[in-house]
Amino acid sequence: MNNDTIISVEGLTKRFGDFTAVDSISFQVGKGEIFGFLGANGAGKTTAMRMLCGLSMPTSGKASVAGFDIYKQTEEIKRNIGYMSQKFSLYEDLTVRENIRFYAGIYGKTNSFIKEKTAFVLKQLHLEKDADKLVRSLPLGWKQKLAFSVAIFHEPQIVFLDEPTGGVDPVTRREFWNMIYKAAEDGITVFVTTHYMDEAEYCDRVSIMVDGRIDALDTPSGLKSNLKASSMDEVFLMLARKAKRTGD
Predict the structure, then answer these.
(1) Selecting from 1.10.287.470, 3.40.50.300, 3.40.50.1820, 3.90.950.20, what CATH number does the domain 5-85+157-247 have?
(2) In the chain, is it the N or the C terminus that has fewer CB atoms within a 10 Å radius of its CB?
(3) What would the pLDDT profile of 132-171 be if each residue is shown by its tens digit?
(4) Which UniProt keywords apply (predicted)?
């Protein structure tokens, strides 16, 4: 792992009984990179991410996140990352402001930092007038944007986003990706899982998981060029067919 590598994974594997959810994957992610972790539902993306976040213990292999070992230093990892789950990680019965303050408090930020950053987030999201509304009253797209803002509130080195744009309209998806670009510009490494192949075009590099394995890893343009494909959807279909033939 060199000085520009912030995530390093080698032979990482997770088994549940006889089922192998993640099958000896290896890759590296550079600092400040937007790294897409693509694949169909059930491909093993979320399982792999949970291991990297220190939320699930691997069966074998090794990995480090922000310089910390995923076996021995899970608490250090959690302090240096942000995490947004598929369910957005917000408390529906708390207000917008209360959600922000709650998560900021977990990371031990000072009251002055929390006050100043809360005002900034509310202004950025145009939620000043809605700060004291319960989160359950917000439209899905606004919940999504708020959850992302909360995940990076403490200015982590890396943010892990698990299917962050699921269930929202194309316009909101694009707005959300603009927020991802801004976080990357601010120096946050973004590790994002998705099953929307068109979102691969927004990433610096992507890996594509099929049946728990990484079948391809490159820039979007590199993948399309190597496979002579016109889109990332076509890339994924070609890899899926190849995997099926191999399995047969």
Answers:
(1) 3.40.50.300
(2) C
(3) 999 999 998 899 999 999 999 999 999 999 888 888 888 8
(4) ATP-binding, Nucleotide-binding
